[in-house]
Amino acid sequence: MYAYSYDMSFVKNRLPGYVAMPKTVEEVQQIMKMANRTKTPVIPYTAGSNIGGLCIPEKDGSIVMDMKRMNKIIRIDEESRFAVVEPGVSHAELAEELYKRGLRFGWPVGPPSASVLSCAICHGIGGITGRYGLNSEQITSMEVVLPTGELTRVGSCAIQKDAWHSLLPLPLVGGLFTGWLGTTGVVTKLGIFTPAVPPHVEIVTTATDDLQDMYKYMLEFSRYEAADDLTAVSWWLSQVPIPYPYKEKPKDAPEWNSYAVLYAYTEKELEAKVEMFERTVKNQQKNGSSLQVTQYPEEAKRARTELPSQIVGSTKNYSKQAGGGISWPGTFTPANKWVPVWEKWREIYKKRNLSPSVRVTMYRGTHYGMLRAMTPINKQYPDQVENSRMAIVEALKVLLDEGGIPYKPPVDFAKEIYSRADPGYVDLIKKVKDFLDPNEIMNPGKLWIR
Amino acid sequence: MEWNFRNVDDEGELNLKHFFWRCTACGTCRSGYTYGPPPTFRKICPQGEKFGYEGFFASKGKAALARWMTSDPVLKNEFEWTPEYLKTLYTCIGCAGCQNQCLIDFKPHIIDTIEAMRAKAVNDGVGPLKEHHILITSMKNNDNPYTGPRSVRAKWMKGLEGIKDINSESAPVLYFAGCTPAYNAPVKNLALKTVSVFNKIGIDYGSLGKKELCCGSTVLRLGARDEFKRIAEKNLETFKYLHDERGVDTIVSSCAGCYRSLLEDYSLSEGYKDYMDGIKVIHTADFLYDLYKKGEFEPKNEIKMKVTYHDPCHLGRHVKEWIIDWDGKEQWKGSYMGVEDHGTFESPRELIKAIPGIQFEEMRRNQNNSYCCGSGGGVKTAFPDWAAENAALRVEEAEQTGAEKIITCCPFCHANLNDGAKVRNSTLRTIDLVELLDEAL
């Protein structure tokens, strides 16, 4: 039981009352029906590798439903470029099969053992977010066991059982099960878009003295929609592992470094993308930016495309100097708010003797993106865990004030989110949750308002 | 003699506790993954695959066991031994498959943590499992884990020529046959064929015969450190005597378990350097490969057969030299910096390929990502059906290569893989490398 009571986040341990490992959809349904009869909380669990305590029970006596034994890759449609997977399928497992077929997925920087399905339904981000959007935007169909135990389907598979190609043009009820942190149902099958791997790739890298110059470059370059992944990291995050405790940046080191992964189907397409990059750099420099083109170490470059990653940039490597844990204020934030948020975050983290190891990533063709502070935690010592937690929560408040929205939020975040939310929105969330889960058994407490 | 075993509740700055609290619970340890290209996914943890729950799975599960045992600082639990906890602890094969995946500071300390928890179980009077007691009692009474009397130990070599009695004659090489070929009839051929190969090559070697003792590995793997120390200290004294009085400078072991123990576990004794000064411990595969490279022999007889090779854990990924930044001068205190791999991977493969007519095909999981047969860590003794069931998975993998024989270099793997073949009604049999070589010489 104890192994299910914690994860790598700051969220306080709680032992589950039971752990169930269903092998079939029917067994999932039986567990849900029994849980409804007995009003026992159920927490869906795949790999437990999220960094927001999402699978740690909020109530005593809960059933953790470990989905690892439902681990089939049911289908890979090479021609139509989508796959259908069960919850226990890991990134590593799917990567092997997709690679054989020249396909890919939005592999995150999480461990290879993490679940593809959970990543997608929790709005995970990956290496193709700049080109295709979030992993939740790649969902093509779903099979879901509702909190009351009924089985349902959403998307094309609801109309024809073997058609897993699209959520549209039907009403987007898949939204009832994405971003809800396992509080509205147990997704037992998921169709996901798996685009082709283009044969040509170039990684272009830059550095700036500050985030102001970096964000301007990223905003301009993102207009071309040329990069599969357009990301910048603060000096502290680029160290890998993140220095723990805080370490002063050398004066001559640029504060921000960026990479853009440019995939192309032809050499000419790649040349055109590089030209767009060069044009952007020239334009930025002409306007007085500190932007410089840089050379990344080869290993660091490989880590950007060799995903799921075993080397630089994987979550475990970020955190290993602290020991045992990592968490974040991970957010979707307009790019023009990155600078004011960063400046406050840097002070908060420095004050708490933590490295301000921040990442920003542009999303597909938009003006906003991911802004997050990877925060290592020494899990052995509760006072150090609390210090990291406080930094994260303080940072979150600053972020919310500027209009950013956290993703995969632990309860500490949910409190802040819903305290500020429009009452109509809060009411709607409660109504949807109550409608789907009348006995309040699905991960109760995780949304804070329910 | 003082021994530098680590305990799960040791005090001090860089104790085991420090390292099992470095585990991030990321779960990378659960599968053998390499990016490649192409990316490969392989199941690597027999215990986790069988029992499923996180506490059983890989080094993530072992860190959880150790944290619970030493009290979680948030839950402040008072640890109590339970049958469930003991089962979780003793169904780990100790194969180190998870260790090979881990990339953080816990990595070098994973096997030590598992064995330290088992040592605590023994110290507290609750371990090992009741099925293991016969093994430990036999070790005390017979100096072997097989309940065989001492007088039977040398029966396998009766009437053999070419092998000296090292108790009375000098030779530079001691052949340390180990208990398994002496007491486990299905793998007796391993010792016989080793002798045959040595004779054909012309090695000057001897055996301790009836005076050979167990290496102690089996009891150490269960946590019975005192019994291990008793027997290891006797062996160290014998080895020194043989070096000083009989000119022994090389101990050749054909058992992966003995090899690992003599090389790694014995080095935890304070007197190891003095006792073993001038003595090299080597496995038969490396010993023969070195001679082959020097041109001392060449397999000439053609064997038209397709074979695959199974890497024993104790001969492969267990044999590593960890590079740790203990004083923090390079990175930070206790940080894992790298590893020097001393595993025997190349020698058996090269020797197999040197045989005319042999076609060699690798299994999907091999070398550092090999899948354990399931025999180690006391699992074969306490859970024989599961050990064979797990071996059957490995035999199935070998069948996929089209091989007619599985070659290995460990009598435990050898016996268990053949048990696994029976489980799946497979005709694919496992033999030792020396059996194959003997036919080729």
Key features of this structure:
heterodimer, A: 450 residues, alpha+beta, Uridine Diphospho-n-acetylenolpyruvylglucosamine Reductase, domain 2, Uridine Diphospho-n-acetylenolpyruvylglucosamine Reductase, domain 3, Vanillyl-alcohol Oxidase, Chain A, domain 3, 3 domains, 21% strand, B: 441 residues, alpha/beta, Rossmann fold, 5-stranded parallel beta sheet
Q: Can you describe what's shown?
A:
The complex is a heterodimer of chains A (450) and B (441). Chain A has 450 residues and is an alpha+beta fold. Chain A folds into three domains: 65 residues, 2-Layer Sandwich (Uridine Diphospho-n-acetylenolpyruvylglucosamine Reductase, domain 2); 121 residues, Uridine Diphospho-n-acetylenolpyruvylglucosamine Reductase, domain 3; 210 residues, FAD-linked oxidases, C-terminal domain (Vanillyl-alcohol Oxidase, Chain A, domain 3), CATH 3.40.462.10. Chain A is built from 13 helices and 18 strands. In chain A, the strands form four sheets. Chain A has an eight-stranded antiparallel beta sheet, sandwiched between helices. The model of chain A has no long low-confidence stretch (mean pLDDT 95). Chain B is α/β, with parallel strands linked by helices and 441 residues long. Among the domains of chain B are: 127 residues, no CATH class; 149 residues, Rossmann fold (3-Layer(aba) Sandwich), CATH 3.40.50. The model of chain B has no long low-confidence stretch (mean pLDDT 96).
The helical percent of chain A reads 25-40%
Kindly provide the name of the CATH class of the domain at 145-293 in chain B: Alpha Beta
**Total beta-strand segments of chain B:** 13
**What coarse outline of chain A follows from CA principal-axis ratios?**
globular
Taking pLDDT < 50 over at least 5 consecutive residues as the criterion, the unreliable ranges of chain B are: none
Mean pLDDT of chain B: 96
Just give the CATH class of the largest domain in chain A: Alpha Beta
Query: How many domains make up the coordinates of chain A?
Result: 3
Roughly what fraction of the amino acids of chain B lie in strands?
5-15%
CATH architecture of the domain at 145-293 in chain B: 3-Layer(aba) Sandwich
Number of helices of chain B: 19
Shape of chain B: globular
CATH superfamily of the largest domain in chain A: FAD-linked oxidases, C-terminal domain
Mean pLDDT of chain A: 95
CATH topology name of the domain at 145-293 in chain B: Rossmann fold
Number of helices of chain A: 13
Structural class of chain A: alpha+beta
Low-pLDDT runs of 5+ residues of chain A are none
Main sheet summary of chain B: 5 strands, parallel
Cα distance spanning the termini of chain A? 25 Å
- Structural category of chain B is alpha/beta
